[in-house]
Amino acid sequence: MTKKTYFFLILILGSLTALGPFSIDMYLPGFPAIAKDLHTTAAKVSLSLSGFFIGISFGQLLYGPLLDRFGRKKPLFIGLCIYIIASIGCALTDSIEGLIVLRIIQAIGSCAATVASVAMVRDLFPVNENAKVFSLLLLVVGVSPMIAPTVGGYVTSAFGWHAVFWILAVMGVAILAATILWLPDSYKPDKSMSLKPGPIIQNFIAVVREPQFITYSLTGAVAFAGLFAYVSGSPLVFMEVFHTNEQTYGWIFAFLSVGFIGSSQLNTLFLRKFSSEQVVNLALICQVIISFTFLAAASNGLLTLPTTIVFLFFFLCCVGYTYPNAAALSLAPFSKNAGSASALMGAFQMGAGTLISIAISLFEVPSIVPMVGSMAISASIALMILLVGRRFITQKVAVQEGADAGVMH
Predict the structure, then answer these.
(1) For 95-101, which contacts have Cβ atoms below 8 Å and span 24 or more sequence positions?
(2) The model's pTM
(3) Suppose 342 and one of 33, 95, 102, 119 were both cysteines; which one would form an S-S bond, judging by CB atoms 3.0 to 4.6 Å apart?
(4) Exposed, middle or buried, 262 (CB in 10 Å: 0-12/13-18/19+)?
């Protein structure tokens, strides 16, 4: 593979991966404007974000078998078309209920891009390069939280929140064109892959029974839920607790994204000396310490806007180390079932994000504690899953080594 081909593959796969995050981040500064225009509250508007997470969680389970059965490109094209139509619907809706429903449909479309891009990393690159490729994808993905809220703030101020969804529709069209023209077929359709519920469920069960997958996919999902807590809670915290305007919020969001992006790129340097297992372990320990210190400060009213930004910055740095390594370790045992494994990993991630965002939306009184408390809980549960799961991985390795020794004798 030439450097030019490598670059374009990363760029296209990164664009596919970034579609969902861009759809999440770009309309965040418009929460107050949407609430006013649709005669509702900012807390209820946040349910449209929860709806997006629900759509992604369901959609990834749907697309996993489809990507294995029909190849990567056909389901991807269909998903992008759904995304484009739903984005136009969001721009035209005049009710909060309509926006919530359309956001669910939009998410179902966008998650085809997410699942396909992750599966294609496993298709196109050697297993030992997967963590590095995921880190590079995060660099492309990381541009979205740097640009999206800032652009969304200015677009909302100048043209209204409806314009945000028109822009997302245009982005969908551009990405669809790029995948048609330049993305290679990385996986031949597997006609033996049944689309009947029974075999699909059995296939998912086979994936879940792999100790390495279930340990690292759940660890990564729950740890990553802390990021969703931040995304869901930040409009309320920054614009209603600290009273920043849309543009300032966008710039703060962009700055905090530097922590997430920077750590994901430094991860490639760490992998030269340390294993992915070691990096995940250390990052999660730091994530727990930072989040509980953050919670203690929040509970005692000790936080200012600058100290809140500092705590969030370092928390997101930890997430930037956890995600690419957990994702690579989750998918490493698979080749044939990479689509299904990718779908399950994404469903776990978005499922955890959905629960945490819904929990935060229930607190209508402006406060930073629900967001920070959710971050601390997610980090601690992720660390416990990792510690328990590693025992099962060790047991399986010991059994396999014993069986191999028996065969040799």
Answers:
(1) 95/38, 96/34, 96/38, 96/40, 96/44, 96/45, 96/47, 96/48, 99/34, 99/38, 99/45, 99/48, 100/47, 100/48, 100/51, 101/51
(2) 0.70
(3) 119
(4) middle
Q: Which of 138-147, 177-186, 243-252 is predicted least confidently? A: 138-147
Residue 3's CB: how many other CB atoms inside 10 A?
7
C-alpha closest to that of 226 among 309, 132, 322? 322
pLDDT tens per residue, range 31-79: 889 999 999 987 788 889 888 988 887 887 788 788 878 888 889 999 9
Nearest to 144 by CA among 242, 278, 279, 25: 25
Q: Which amino acid is at 220?
A: G
List the chain domain ranges. 13-187+200-403
Each residue of 11-36: pLDDT tens digit? Answer: 888 889 889 888 988 998 898 899 99
Q: How many CB atoms lie within 10 A of CB 192?
A: 9
Q: Which two tokens stand for residue 170?
A: 């245009």
